[in-house]
Each structure stands twice: as structure tokens, then as C-alpha cells.
Automatic annotation (TrEMBL):
Residues 122-217 form the Acyl-CoA oxidase/dehydrogenase middle domain. Residues 6-118 form the Acyl-CoA dehydrogenase/oxidase N-terminal domain. It comes from Dyadobacter chenhuakuii. Residues 231-378 form the Acyl-CoA dehydrogenase/oxidase C-terminal domain. This is Acyl-CoA dehydrogenase. It comes from the Bacteria.
Length: 379
């Protein structure tokens, strides 16, 4: 498999790096403190095409491949992992899901705006009682002939407060189990749709995470994506690609922490020489660089397989598992290399360490990735 980047890929990397360094870096500590993502930045991300990278140009997107997307995700997440998750959900769960499975009318109405950031999307699968065990949906969408009557609670929704539309998975026919689940496009502002509590999180604090409450919300029939009962397949299919995005976010967090550690180790002196000249620190740097490269190769491989139209379920689970475990391990080592300075906000690595943790949890925990990999191996 060819992992060389084309001129187009390098151009995407440079554009993303430029945006991250010049626009996301200033204020990243304050946004984390205040738990706020700047709407101006979000609009700029949309204008630069970072929110609909893989959407076809027909619908206002960049028409790029998955490799371009993961390269951009890495650069953005190196600096601001909160921006990374907003970008990942909008691109790989919401836009990709609509592009692949939406009707022409749904694409014309929603995808064009989502691709440019005029609208932000949320993906709503998890519930208070259904996280890893995603088939046990308690939210109901009762078929009322002209519309679906939606009732229930979604939990942990990324961009729950800032999004304009939500893709909501809900049970229509409990007797059919996961084959009775539907996915509905639910617009903000519908009567009975309330944004719940905003979570006060350990990491990715500038990205809002909220619960969403639905009480007798009438959702038009034309807002169902795909055939009746397609909702769970929709969720699983989009998550296969979403996990490549989160793997790229984890890769970015790890790469950011590595670059900071390398620089710092050359500047900080102890016992009359830079700490980079102590073998204990050199060994840490060597292991960091090796694991980072292995994570990058797994992420690129999953992206390439998806672009080539090959099966990428196992590859995306492996990429997410390895990249997120690497991000957690590597950021912890980065704090260690920085000593006491690593424990305070100004040096950025403490934030990256807090941000890394979530990549082992969302879009399927590390345990769930192992379960998926094992099922693929044993098929
Ligand atoms: N791709 C396509 N289809 C899949 C699939 C996959 N990766 N995994 C399962 N399916 C299909 C199965 O083929 C099956 O369909 P059929 O009956 O037609 O064959 C159906 O889905 C049910 O599958 P299982 O019987 O395997 O279901 P299960 O109950 O054993 O669990 C699971 C499957 C993989 C554990 C699944 O529940 C899962 O992925 N859990 C994790 C949930 C998750 O990742 N949530 C993320 C929420 S979004 C998010 O987190 C966003 C964010 O943070 C930013
Ligand atoms: P549980 O499923 O209760 O798991 C608890 C523990 O048990 C975990 O360690 C898990 O790995 C383990 N476990 C569970 N089942 C098994 C098993 N079969 N074998 C081995 N171990 C197992 N969801 C959305 O739908 N949309 C979003 O936008 C979204 N954004 C999120 C943002 C944040 C910041 C957070 C924290 C979560 C977000 N989530 C979102 C939810 C996320 O996907 C779930 O938290 C995750 O899937 C785990 O579910 P849970 O929290 O219910 O944990």
C-alpha cells in the first residue's frame, strides 16, 4: 500500500497546519478553561472547507478522499482536539451518512449547508442506558402514518447545544430488535425538543456535550433516512468511518504532545546538559516516535482501504484502538518529560493528556474495538 502523500495531500496538510497554528492556537487554553468554542472559528473552518471535506462538490463539499480528511484531522487535533471532534462528527458521521444514504431531497436541504458549516450536525445514538450496548435503544419513534412521534433521551451528544440538526436513532418496532430501529433527521426548534444539561468534562472541554430530550416531537416522515428499520445499520456503517476520524484525532493529540516534548527536551537543562542528552529521555522519545509512526500507518491504511472501496471495519477498529491507546500513553510520557512544567496549563501537554482520554471511550470504547476486531478475525 502506497503511503506517499500526493501534492494535493501536502497542500491539505499545509492549509490545515496553517489554520491550526494561526487561528486555533491563540486562545486554546482560554477556550478549554471557559468550555466555549468560538463560533467565528467554526465559521472559518466551514469557509475553508474543513467541515465537509469528503462531501461531493455537487453538494458544496470538497470532494476529497478519506486520506485528505485524516491528514487535516491530525493537524487540527495537534493544536485543538475540541475543534477536532466537532470536525470529525460533522464530516464522518453526519455528512458522510447523509451523502451515502440520504435522499436527493434530504441532501439538497441539509447536506449543502452542513458541508459548508452553515449548519452543524450531531449524531445521536447513545442514551443513559445504551452506550456500548447500542442496540438497546429506549428512545421511541412511533409511526403515526404522517409523522414519527419521538420520545426519549439521548446522552453525551457532541455539539448537542450548537448543532442545528440531529441524526437521531430510535426504536420504532421493538419486536424486530435492531431491525426495528430508524434514523431521523430532527431539526432544532421542533416543539418538544429540548437541549439538556451541558457536561463539565475532563477534556475536549471547548466542544459542547449535552443530553437531548424529546417529548412527543413530531418528525416528518420524509426525514427518515433510508428504508424502515435501517437506523442501526446506518449507525454502524457511519461509525466504521467515524472511527477513522477519531483515530486521526488521537494521532493528532499524540503528535502534538510529541513535538512539544522533543522541543522541550532540547531546551531544558539538568546536570549541566539538555535533558535530551540523558539516555532515559532519549529512550522515551524513541518509543514515542515509534508508536506514533505505527499509529499513523494504521490510520492511513484504514483511510486508504475506505478510499479503495475495500472492507475497512477491522482496519478502522484497529486504527482507533491503537491510536487512542498511543495518545493516552504518549501524552502521559510528555507530561513526565516536561516535569513540573508539564503539570501546568501554559505548556499544553496537560491539556493534551486530558484530551487523549476520551479517544479511548467515544465511538466505541477500546474494549468494544477489541470485540469488533475479534469478531472480524473469527468470522
Ligand atoms: N458495520 C456494519 N454493520 C454492523 C457492524 C459494523 N461495524 N457491527 C454490527 N453490524 C450489524 C450486524 O451485521 C447486525 O446486522 P444483521 O443482523 O443484519 O447481520 C447488526 O449490526 C447487529 O449487530 P450485532 O448482533 O453484532 O450487535 P451487538 O449488539 O452484538 O453489538 C456492537 C454490536 C459492535 C457492540 C455495537 O453495539 C457497537 O458498535 N457499540 C458501540 C457503540 C458506539 O460506537 N457508539 C458511538 C456513539 S457516537 C460517538 O461516540 C460520537 C463521538 O463520540 C464523537
Ligand atoms: P458503557 O457501555 O456503560 O461501558 C462501561 C465500561 O464497560 C467501558 O469500559 C466499556 O468498554 C465496558 N464494556 C461494556 N460492554 C462491554 C463488553 N461487551 N465487553 C467488554 N467491556 C465492555 N454518543 C453519541 O451517540 N453521539 C455523540 O456525539 C457522542 N459524543 C460523546 C462525547 C463525549 C465527551 C463522551 C464522554 C461520550 C460521547 N458519546 C456520544 C457516547 C460514547 O459513545 C459512549 O460513552 C461510549 O460508547 C461508551 O458508552 P457508555 O458511556 O454507556 O459506557
Amino acid at each position: 500500500m502506497d503511503f506517499n502523500l500526493s501534492e494535493e495531500h501536502v497542500a491539505v496538510q499545509e492549509a490545515a497546519r496553517d489554520f491550526a497554528v494561526n487561528h486555533l492556537f491563540p486562545g486554546v487554553i482560554e477556550r478549554d478553561d471557559e468550555q466555549k468554542f468560538d463560533k467565528v472559528l467554526l465559521r472559518q473552518m466551514g469557509e475553508l472547507g474543513f467541515l465537509g471535506m469528503m462531501v461531493s462538490p455537487e453538494y458544496g463539499g470538497g470532494g476529497m478522499d478519506t486520506l485528505s480528511y485524516v491528514i487535516a484531522m491530525e493537524e487540527i487535533s495537534k493544536v485543538d482536539a475540541s475543534a477536532g471532534v466537532i470536525m470529525s462528527v460533522n464530516n464522518s458521521l453526519v455528512c458522510w451518512g447523509l451523502q451515502m444514504f440520504g435522499s436527493p431531497e434530504q441532501k439538497a436541504k441539509y447536506l449543502t449547508k452542513l458541508a459548508t458549516g452553515e449548519m452543524i450536525g450531531a449524531f445521536c445514538l447513545s442514551e443513559p442506558e445504551a452506550g456500548s450496548d447500542a442496540t438497546s435503544q429506549h428512545t421511541t419513534a412511533v409511526d403515526m402514518d404522517d409523522y414519527y412521534l419521538l420520545n426519549g433521551t439521548k446522552n453525551w451528544i457532541t455539539s448537542g447545544a450548537t448543532s442545528d440538526i440531529c441524526l437521531v436513532m430510535a426504536q420504532t418496532d421493538p419486536e424486530k430488535g435492531h431491525k426495528g430501529i430508524n434514523v431521523l433527521i430532527v431539526e432544532k426548534g421542533l416543539e418538544g425538543f429540548v437541549v439538556g444539561k451541558k457536561e463539565n468534562k475532563m477534556g475536549i472541554r471547548a466542544s459542547d456535550t449535552t443530553s437531548l430530550l424529546f417529548t412527543d416531537v413530531k418528525v416528518p416522515k420524509e426525514n427518515r433516512i433510508g428504508e424502515d428499520g435501517f437506523g442501526f445499520k446506518f449507525a454502524m456503517s457511519t461509525l466504521n468511518g467515524g472511527r477513522i476520524g477519531i483515530a486521526a484525532q488521537a494521532l493528532g493529540i499524540a503528535a502534538g504532545a510529541f513535538e512539544l516534548s522533543l522541543q522541550y527536551s532540547k531546551q531544558r537543562k539538568t546536570f549541566g546538559k539538555p535533558i535530551s542528552e540523558h539516555q532515559a529521555i532519549q529512550f522515551k522519545l524513541s518509543e514515542m516516535a515509534t508508536r506514533l509512526e505505527a499509529a499513523r500507518l494504521l490510520v492511513y491504511k484504514a483511510a486508504r482501504l475506505k478510499d479503495e472501496g475495500k472492507d475497512y471495519i477491522q482496519a478502522s477498529a484497529m486504527a482507533k484502538l491503537y491510536a487512542s491507546e498511543t495518545a493516552m500513553w504518549l501524552t502521559t510520557e510528555a507530561v513526565q518529560i516536561h516535569g513540573g512544567y508539564g503539570y501546568v496549563k501554559e505548556y499544553h501537554v496537560e491539556r493534551l493528556m486530558r484530551d487523549a482520554k476520551i479517544t479511548q471511550i467515544y465511538e466505541g470504547t477500546s474494549e468494544i474495538q477489541k470485540l469488533i476486531i475479534a469478531r472480524e478475525l473469527l468470522k
